[in-house]
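Question: does this match?
>
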Amino acid sequence: MALQNPTPSEYIQHHLTNLTYGYHPENGWSFAHGAQEASEMGFVAIHVDTMAWSVGLGILFCWLFRVGAKAAHAGVPTGVLNFVELMVEFVDKSVKETFHGKSNLIAPLALTICCWIFLMNLMDLVPVDLVPYLFMVSGVDYMKIVPTTDVNATLGMSIGVFLLIVIYSIKIKGVSGFVGELTLQPFGKWMIPFNFLLEGVGLIAKPISLALRLFGNLYAGELIFILIALLPFYLQWFLSVPWAIFHILVIVLQAFIFMMLTIVYLSMAHEHH
């Protein structure tokens, strides 16, 4: 890694620092050399590792399902086709049981969310020092490979879902119906300011809760793996294997929860009061 004989705190900070590119007041457009420079870049910066790994895993998802779709046949599925059919049937069943409107977007969106987030979460099972060391040898000091441990990535996905909620609410109910939901519930027209405050907070809380739930669980999981890596070698194997097995449940569960809440929120957006 970039540090020689780091202290535990330096080791943890190094593994939790993104590869950041942006405009620095002193260095201009450049890669940040540490968390301090990254913070000084402010909003005019991008986490290159988060973007690269999330886009790469998204391409992997598209390729796997394209291979499965091209190999589809009437017989017993095997290999990639078996996985693709399993996921499609599972998501299709979840949408039919939860979504009560009519839309050609919801099922493909749910499938994409579930598989994409699962693949991003799955990167948390890669040994914490392996990929950063390989990039360090290539001259790259920082490399986080789990996009969902970056709150920017999880907020980006949740904001996308939020925009769909607003768009479908207006499309199905009209502008007046959408505004009416925000101002006339639950206490009627005599308490419009209070109604708007309650409903507005509830609406804004949806994307924030989606993002922070996913980020918090994966960030905590990664941090525990990093802490285990600081222990003596024999204790690392003794603790990391059970934690990895348990963390598989977290990886799958968080992808499922994000998908199901997206379906529920969009179903609510399609319903008339």
